[in-house]
Write a structure and sequence with these properties.
526 residues, alpha/beta, Alkaline Phosphatase, subunit A, Arylsulfatase, C-terminal domain, ten-stranded mixed beta sheet, 20 strands, globular
């Protein structure tokens, strides 16, 4: 707060008046002091964390994309810092989000895969559309603190809009139980595969909600979930979630710091969106396009104009980001708000999406569900006017589990590990992140990781990065690459560097903790 001088003028005719005015002046100065303290207390930065779904490293103009227009995110990069070596927490959605929320890598985190809880439960009807009575993923460990709980404990109001994926409905880990004040979106990421759903989920502390509820999409359920009439559904979830996020932002007045998590589902399959100017523009651009006729057992409806659909979804997301930034400026909150944009993992090829056509891997090998660079290296942009240098580029190696210590640093939360580590299981309650606030602010020496770590059960893969060395273990077999001269991970040099392989295998031995829900094959330890 800028220092100011306050002058109290005393006009008095006798000692009684003198005592009155001295008392009044003292109260005035005292009030001003209390006001200044209050303002200083509320000068913590606001934080908006935007995480989209399945966007590849090369999907944005600022990362080299040639076909898709992303002017707002590109401008965000020009006004902030673009990271070239930032990593997701996992090559797939739920565990990547868990890494962000818990500050843990996937060798320590409770959630390490997309374990679902919607199977083997009764069905219910929405119109003529069947739906599971319980939906969602494996819950976060309730004995390990997550990021919204820390922020709320330190004076922030919290809102989350989009995918939760941190616990099934009614579990020990839903937004209402984990530090979220306002929530709107999909509790279950399986539900989020479709953009015109039967229902969404809501929790609003301000509205008096006591638990997460379902909000039925009354206009959608008039039409079947699958088939030709599906696209007659008018309630497009991505737009609805975004509007709720803007409404929440509009309610912020700057008196209390806020922490917003905007987990937009775009551009994840299915390839579907409103027939508006965005989509029509890309249909004209990709006059010769592909059609995806569907696949047996797929949850996705068939799609025509698949290139136009995919490009339109990213540009639509770009519009959302632009509206968020505009809302912050409109509210006068722009200069004290950190905005981060990233993706939960690498690109997908589901529902007719064609990552090869767009060069979506950014010249990196691999897709979603793989521990190669293409599955885990993600776009990552940070904007904070006046604090983060405009137009800067960083090659600092960081991962989603670094966001907890970084946000704690920026919010003035001291010794967060000591304060929030579970006292009953202290030795097994891990925090794996390193703050990169020094990199963002250009102040002090930046501590770096000795290694970064990933494991993923569905494809039975483990990834370790140590400097420029990258080890990918597939079904127990190690493959070694030197990213300094082999960014595409084409040349396995494990046989030439047994000492490096042995060292990185020891990292795996030390970092992997058994988890009864998620199994990976460990390499042979000599």
């Amino acid at each position: 707060m800028q220092k100011q001088n306050y002058i109290v003028t005393l006009n008095y005719h006798n000692m009684e008046n003198k005592r009155f005015w001295l008392l009044a002046g003292g109260l005035a100065l005292s009030s001003l002091g209390l006001y200044a303290q209050k303002q200083k207390k509320n000068e913590k930065p606001n934080i908006i964390y935007i995480m989209c779904d399945d966007m590849g490293y090369g999907d944005l103009g600022c990362y080299g994309q040639k076909y898709i227009q992303t002017p707002n995110i590109d401008r965000m990069a020009n006004e902030g810092m673009l990271f070239t070596q930032a990593y997701a927490g996992s090559p797939v959605s739920a565990p990547s989000r868990a890494s962000f929320m818990t500050g843990q890598h996937s060798g320590h985190c409770e959630v390490r895969g997309n374990k679902e809880y919607w199977t083997n439960v009764p069905m219910m009807l929405y119109g003529n559309n069947q739906e599971y009575t319980v939906v969602g993923q494996h819950p976060y460990d309730p004995e390990h603190v997550i990021l919204p709980e820390i922020m709320k404990d330190n004076g922030y109001t919290t809102g989350m809009f989009g995918k939760w994926a941190g616990g099934y409905e009614g579990s020990v880990s839903t937004p209402d139980k984990r530090g979220i004040d306002e929530y709107y979106g999909y509790i279950c990421q399986f539900q989020a595969h479709l953009y015109y759903p039967n229902f969404l989920n809501r929790y609003s502390r301000s509205a008096g909600d006591t638990a997460v509820t379902r909000v039925v999409m009354e206009e959608n359920i008039k039409y079947p979930m699958y088939g030709k009439e599906y696209l007659k559904r008018p309630q497009y979830s991505a737009d609805m979630i975004h509007q709720e996020a803007l409404k929440w932002l509009d309610n912020q007045d700057g008196k209390q710091p806020f922490f917003g998590i905007l987990t937009y589902t775009l551009p994840h399959a299915e390839l579907a969106q409103p027939e508006d100017s965005i989509l029509e523009g890309y249909k004209r651009k990709f006059f010769v396009d592909k059609t995806w006729g569907g696949q047996e057992g797929s949850r996705y409806n068939p799609s025509v104009h698949t290139h136009a659909q995919f490009a339109g979804m990213i540009t639509r997301l770009d519009h959302y980001v632009g509206e968020v930034l505009a809302k912050l400026k409109e509210k006068g909150l722009d200069e004290n708000t950190i905005v981060i944009f990233t993706s939960d993992n690498g690109p997908h090829e589901e529902g007719g999406a064609d990552p090869t056509f767009f060069g979506r891997d950014g010249k990196l090998r691999g897709l979603k569900r793989q521990c190669y660079e293409g599955g885990i290296r993600v776009p990552f942009i940070v904007r904070w006017p006046g604090k983060v240098a405009a137009g800067s580029v960083s090659d600092h190696q960081c991962a989603f589990y670094d966001l907890m210590p970084t946000f704690c640093d920026l919010a003035g939360v001291k010794d967060y590990v000591k304060k929030y580590r579970n006292k009953k299981k202290k030795e097994a309650d891990y925090f794996d992140g390193i703050s990169f606030a020094s990199t963002l602010l250009g102040q002090g020496e930046q501590q770096t990781h000795d290694f970064l770590y990933w494991e993923f059960n569905e494809t039975d893969q483990i990834g370790v990065r140590m400097g420029d060395w990258k080890l990918v273990v597939k079904k127990g077999k190690p493959f070694l690459y030197n990213l300094a001269d082999d960014i595409h991970e084409d040349h396995d040099i494990a046989a030439q560097h047994p000492d490096i392989v042995a060292k990185m295998k020891e990292i795996i031995r030390a970092q992997h903790t058994p988890n009864p829900h998620f199994f990976v094959t460990l390499p042979d330890f000599e």
